[in-house]
Write a structure and sequence with these properties.
single chain, Spore Coat Polysaccharide Biosynthesis Protein SpsA, Chain A, 11-stranded mixed sheet, globular, 305 residues, alpha/beta, 7 helices, 26% helix
């Protein structure tokens, strides 16, 4: 059986953090969050790791992450560039922002040769999440059924500000996704969380246990045909409205395919606690959590020795 592949999106700007947060050390051995994701993926049974980076950052990733991992993981580097567009389209003058997460995955199309999972580079997902999605990808399921790891909203928050999360709705069984709504300002609350869409004048409560997406997906390689076919439609609709900042987000494709009756997305429940560095003050909490996991034996002191 072909081993699933892991696609890591590492070309984001990290604007709220104020730097290239994907390469901030999270432990005393100078490992990054990406190190832990790759370590968890390899021990769960994933094969090739496809790392999507900006062209100008590839040498940095090779000389640091690639050097310390060595031959313990098969890493292929792929570039996300703003000028990688469908025929008939060009980069608007002044545009520097990447085209979003769906475009990032589309840039990796030639490298993806097996069922694959997609993650963000700057999120710590937890060992159990990788095991869960790996087991799904190697299981028997319909060709038009995909998967998403669903986190509990209270396990994905920061005390240092608000976060953006895809709030999920499911069918009556809770097993299948019916849609994702992006909420860009979610804050912790007793018993759950709350989001606002009017700059804090009013809030909508999200009870503990509400399922949110952390961009941890499982797909067959054939879905990339949908990514490619829907990109020109997205550009024609959005470039006239927001040429400098519109983004082709990954959840758009499964959302549309669910609405069209072309696909189903199984929600894989996950009780892992997410860790991430959305803001600079988040870093000490992440470092403390990883130190605690090492002390409990969940990770070796030095991942790649």
């Amino acid at each position: 059986m072909t081993m699933p592949q892991l696609v890591i999106m590492a070309a984001g700007l990290g604007s709220r953090y104020g730097g290239l947060k994907q390469i901030s050390p999270v432990d005393e051995e100078n490992h990054w969050i990406i190190d832990y994701s790759i370590f968890d993926a390899v021990r769960a049974g994933f094969g090739k790791i496809i790392l999507i980076v900006k062209p100008e950052n590839e040498a940095l990733f090779r000389d640091t992450l690639g050097r310390r991992i060595g031959g313990k993981a098969d890493i292929q580097y792929v570039h996300q560039r703003p000028d990688l567009l469908p025929p008939g389209f060009s980069v608007p003058p002044g545009r520097v922002k990447p085209w979003g997460t769906a475009h990032a995955v589309l840039c990796a199309r030639d490298a993806i040769t097996a069922p694959f999972s997609v993650i963000n580079a700057d999120d710590f997902y937890g060992k159990g999440a990788f095991e869960t999605i790996h087991d799904y990808l190697v299981s028997d399921h319909p060709a038009n059924e995909y998967a998403m790891v669903g986190y509990r909203v209270e396990n994905t928050l920061t005390e240092n500000g608000h976060v953006a999360r895809g709030v999920c709705s499911t069918d009556e069984s809770g097993a299948y996704l019916t849609g994702i709504t992006e909420r860009t300002r979610i804050e912790p609350r007793p018993g759950g969380a709350a989001y606002t869409e009017d700059e804090g004048r009013s809030y909508v409560f999200l009870p503990a246990g509400t399922t949110v997406s952390m961009n941890f997906w499982g797909f067959p390689p054939e879905i990339l045909e949908e990514f490619e076919a829907r990109f020109p439609v997205f550009l024609r609709e959005n470039l006239p409205i927001n040429p400098l900042k519109c983004e082709y987000f990954l959840p758009l494709i499964p959302n549309q395919m669910i609405a069209e009756g072309k696909a189903k997305v199984r929600v894989l429940p996950c009780t892992e606690k997410w860790y991430g560095v959305t803001y600079q003050p988040d870093m000490p909490n992440v470092q403390s959590a990883i130190r605690g996991m090492k002390e409990r034996g969940l990770y070796p002191q030095s991942l790649w020795d």
